[in-house]
Amino acid sequence: MNCYAWLSLLLTLSHLWPCLPSMQNHNTHKMNHPFATLQRVKRGWVWSQFFVLEEQILKEPLCVGQLKSDSDKHDGTFKYILTGDGAGSIFTIDEYTGTIHVTQKLDREEKPFYTLRAQAINRNTQLPVEPESEFIIKVQDINDQEPKFLDGPYEATVPEMSPEGTSVIQVTATDGDDPAYGNSARLLYSILQGQPYFSVEPKTGVIRISSQMDRETKEQYFVIIQAKDMVGQMGGFSGTTTVTINLSDINDNKPIFQQKFYYMNISEAAPVGSTIGKIMAEDSDIGENAAMNYVIEGEESLVFDIITNNETQEGIVILKERVDFESKRRYSIRVKAINRQMDDHFMKEGPFEDTTIIKISVEDADEPPVFTSQNYVMEIPEGATNGSFVGAITARDPDNANSPIRYSIVHSTYLKRLFSINAHSGTIIINKLLDRETAAWHNITVTATEMRNPEQVSEVTVYIQVLDVNDHAPEFPKHYEIYVCENARSGQLIQTISAVDKDDSVEGHHFYFTLAREATNNSNFTVRDNQDNTAGIFTAKNGFSRQEQFAFFLPVLIVDNGTPSLTSTNTLTVSVCDCDTEASAQSCRFGAFMFSMGLSIEALVGVLACILVILVFFLAMLVLRQRRKQSLFPDKPEEFRENIVRYDDEGGGEEDTEAFDISTLRTRTVMREHKSRRNITTEIQSLYRQSLQVGPDSAVFREFILEKLKEANADPTAPPYDSLQTYAFEGTGSLAGSLSSLGSSISHVDENYDYLTDGGWTLNN
Questions:
Q1: Are 393 and 445 in contact (CB under 8 A)?
Q2: 104, β-bridge pairs
Q3: Which burial class, exposed, middle or buried, applies to 708 when counting CB atoms under 10 A from its CB (0-12, 13-18, 19+)?
Q4: Backbone angles phi, psi at 266, to 5 degrees
Q5: What residue segments make up the domains of the chain, in order of their start?
Q6: 72-to-5, 76, 83, 607 alpha-carbon distances in Å
Q7: How confident is the model at residue 654 (pLDDT cuts 50, 70, 90)?
Q8: pTM for this predicted structure
Q9: Domain covering 148-248 in this structure, CATH number
Q10: SS3 for 655-687, per residue?
């Protein structure tokens, strides 16, 4: 079967054209709209575009075009089929004639074109008689969309007083119509509200300033911009948006005082730093452009100061120096307010500052006394006699009342012992001798009190310097240990000495060293002054003998440069040593120590041997005594109970059986660990000697008995006393006499109590 092509005819836009008459022969509807016809061309299908206007209101299907094959003999054997976008719903085809209709209103903004496929088949055999071909139906645009500002409403900021032509902001509108077809999407901008201060460029939408504006007059403007399609022609659509334009502040206004004069008061008793008052200059600008500083001009800036409150921009006037009603009662100060930031564009209009006058009146007040000086420095030589004049202080009442003043030293026991002050004249004298070497300075506080109003008190510090007097002779700074070897040669330096002086020298200390007069004929050593406050001790002969003389005493005379000069004689001890070839100083020091003790080597060995023997003997005694105690008190299985009974009088002897209950000793056996018992013999003997001087009710005995009672109760290993009977006072009139052995021995030698065993007694220590 031969292949045929389809060729589309140009689609006529006029809806007045009728359909071709040949189509009425195939039972087609009469259509009053344009269409296109495809004709047969050899070697394939060729397609073109069909057009249909958007937004057409359809009362009946609208003819778009016609598909036709040259092989079609109009006998109804050909069947035309349409597939693709909207086929069967939006677009239909007459299967006999191939005429295409649109059945719905189309919107280009929703879908600008549709892609369809056409085919012709034999109705009887259902076989294609023409190959399938694809074509497009394009929706032709009409002006049905209005311009829209998608980013609106707008807001912009521009500095106040900006020049004409300054760009503020650009607004942009969009139109949904086809920009490539006609003027439906071509927009034109205009300003509806905001003139004469603003204008807009018609094609770009850029808003510009038309005249200068002052923020202090009006801070915000509302501008309405219109965008119209069809290049602004009649019948087009339009859209509007609002632009809020704010004016930002610049420093175009200077500060201005609302008053030319301000009046304030200050008491003369007000302390430095007191607030006197506040002033304020107004600035129409805002923020940093309204920030200002206040400055006091002239000499009054020494007495007063002004600072700026950064939050309120107020100027706070404060007192910089105390004022005195009696000296000056009124002040007139000139204050200037200056902007901190300047704008060079407005400097030609003059300085951005303003000036005002503040008149300050000083109020009278009862003031404390005023000293003639803030502090006093006085001098007195050390060693001055009691009652010597040190200095005088003066204070006065600054008020017109001129009250008398009473002076006193602030309470200090130490300073009052040294100084006193005349209550009326303020004269200070000393009460005792002063020593500069003990304290070179004394600081005292003196008060001045108004006698008519004791509440008005002032204080001042007095610094008293004790001047130095040469009253201390020079001396050695330390004890010198000097040694000379037996084999020393003449002229050998054995020691370098120096001196110190407690006195203070203005020119600096200088000491002179010589041998004392009694040693000038010394043929063993010499003293050589180094002229730098030091001197050297040199040997004056060859060789020394320890057997002949172990040590030499060398008196040295030291003279200072004070006025008058003082001297002192200081003795050096030079020890002779049996040195080896290396002249060991350590062995020399040991020999000197033995010499100072007056002992020889042999005597020292004997002393050490005696000490060792005594130590061995003492340790042996301790060991024997410890073994004796262990044998006297072996561990026993039975329990021992102590019964402590206190008597305030002489005991009844052997016939006294009512002192304690013997049955309390017969209790069950308790095993106890051995514990050494304290030896209280010495304490009991001391108690006996005291009993001869005090009565039985003395607190000494009560304390002792209670202490021993506690020890007996707490000690489970105490020796098994049957009864500890304590006699606080030795009785008189007993036929048996005293039973106490405390006074029977003057020394601490142990007594022999062996005779008591004959009566059945058991001895326990």
A1: no
A2: none
A3: middle
A4: -145, 135
A5: 50-140, 148-248, 256-363, 370-467, 481-577
A6: 13, 8, 20, 162
A7: low
A8: 0.43
A9: 2.60.40.60
A10: HCCCCCCHHHHCCCCCCCCCCCCCCCHHHHHHH
Say if residue 24's pLDDT is above 90. no
What pLDDT, in 10s, does the model give residues 633-652? 555 444 444 455 555 555 55
What are the two backbone dihedrals, phi and then psi, of residue 403, each rounded to the nearest 5 degrees? -70, 145
What is the per-residue pLDDT for 289? 87
Question: Are 199 and 223 a contacting pair, CB within 8 Å?
Answer: no
State the distance between the two ends of the chain, measured CA to CA, in whole angstroms.
156
Whether residue 227 contacts residue 149, with contact meaning beta carbons closer than 8 Å, is answered with yes
Q: Is the pLDDT of residue 406 over 90?
A: yes
- Return d(Cα 394, Cα 407) in angstroms, integer: 9
Of the listed ranges 10-14, 70-74, 86-90, 543-547, the least confidently predicted one is 10-14
d(CA 292, CA 289): 8
| CATH fold match for the domains 148-248 and 256-363 | yes
Give the span between the Cα atoms of 313 and 293, in whole angstroms.
Answer: 8
Mean residue pLDDT of the chain comes to: 77
Asked, as a colleague might, if the bond just before 196 is cis with ω within 30 of 0, I would say yes
- Token code pair at residue 48: 């073109």
**C-beta of residue 375 within 8 angstroms of C-beta of residue 462:** yes
- Other beta carbons within 10 angstroms of residue 518's beta carbon come to 10
Give the model confidence (pLDDT) of 70-118 as tens digits: 777 788 888 888 888 878 788 888 888 888 888 877 777 778 788 888 8
Longest Cα–Cα distance in the chain: 185
Cis peptide before 368 (omega within 30 of 0): no
Q: CA neighbours within 13 Å on the CB side: how many for 708? A: 21
Range with the lowest mean pLDDT among 403-417, 445-459, 677-691?
677-691
Tell me the residue type at 277: G
DSSP string, 332-398: EEEEEEEESS--GGGGGG--SEEEEEEEEEEEP--PPPEESSSEEEEEEETTPPTT-EEEE--EE--
Angle at the Cα of 215 from the Cα atoms of 211 and 219, rounded to 5 degrees: 100
8 Å CB contact between 443 and 461: yes
Token match 């400097």: residue? 347
Residue whose pair of structure tokens reads 């073109």 in the numeric block:
48
Grade residue 143 by pLDDT with cuts at 50, 70 and 90. confident
Residues 6 or more apart whose CB falls under 8 angstroms from that of 120 comprise 67, 69, 72, 78, 79, 80, 81, 98, 128, 129, 130
Q: What is the pLDDT of residue 154?
A: 95
Q: What is the CATH number of domain 50-140?
A: 2.60.40.60
Pairing of strands 482-485, 567-577: parallel
Instruction: For domain 370-467, give its CATH number from 2.60.40.60, 3.40.630.10, 2.30.33.40, 2.60.40.10.
Output: 2.60.40.60
pLDDT grade for 448, boundaries at 50, 70 and 90: very high
Contact in structure between 209 and 163 (CB atoms under 8 Å): yes
- For 256-363, CATH number? 2.60.40.60
Using CB atoms within 10 Å of the CB of residue 391, give its burial: 0 to 12 exposed, 13 to 18 middle, 19+ buried. Answer: middle
